[in-house]
Design goal:
GO terms for molecular function: GTPase activator activity. InterPro entries: Rab-GAP-TBC_dom, Rab-GAP_TBC_sf. Keywords: GTPase activation. Among the domains are: 48 residues, no CATH class; 121 residues, putative rabgap domain of human tbc1 domain family member 14 like domains (Helicase, Ruva Protein, domain 3, Orthogonal Bundle), CATH 1.10.8; 37 residues. Helices cover 57% and strands 0% of the residues. It is built from 14 helices and no strands. The chain is globular and about 60 Å long.
Length: 306
Amino acid sequence: ASEPYLYLQVNLKPFGETGDCDCDWDEQQTPQEVATRQESGFPYKTPKLPGLIMNKMERTLNMVQRALGNLSEESQQAFQSSGSSGQPPPRPPLTDAEFRKFLDPIGQVIHSKELRAVIYFGGIEPSLRKVVWKHILNVYPEGMSGRERMDYMKRKAQEYTVLREKWRLLVQKGQNIGDLSYVTSMVRKDVLRTDRHHKFYGGSDDNQNTASLFNILTTYALNHPSVSYCQGMSDLASPLLIIMRDEPQAYICLCALMRRLKDNFMLDGIAMTTKFTHLAEGLQHYDPDFYNYLKSHQADDLLFCY
């Protein structure tokens, strides 16, 4: 659980498997919470996002996004094509033939650390990513054969469709109130500014891919009320949808990824506060001048790093 399941290279853009995951889709609720949901007519109870830290974080991210919006696409493309160091990757991308060497006879990944190192230093051939990502995200329960993995994905896709249609039906009936209204509003605001300069999400706001991203995040938030939705989740779901090109499969991958990352989005802020503290201590030790500069500009909370 301490090892990363997926390494992502983040390119700046202008504004714009351990165990089955069945139990991760439907969180356990107390009888009191169940009664509250039944009385309200809405099947989920979602916590709000109170507190100064969330408001300040959102303002900081908005400022960064506006600043990035001033960068020209030409300058970004030149930077991305040349690379920050001007050096080619240490090794070529992972190929299908090479990937098969990391699989046992039933198709399970072996020598996981070595596989992740190969991916970290060279990436994955684009056509292979939707296959490999499911493995390194630990989507599949342990011990499944190839046929069992296919059946598993089909079953989970059907479960996702059922979960999605529950809240969509309420919206269609004009019952978009309370928690449902809160979640859909939060998600819609983020989705409409996530990777809009990428051709996959380009065009008008009713782009079908943008709608799929909205469906994925809303369904996740409503079915994981202890996590709900927090700004930044759209940036995790977006590349998954781009690669999978399939809404249910992207949702399944997001659930797997969030099993590891959900603490970063919890309302108590404990995980992120700890990380900000470690980062601040590192800056003070290795670059005290820079830390003092940030402090003089009241940026030593480091929320811009979120």
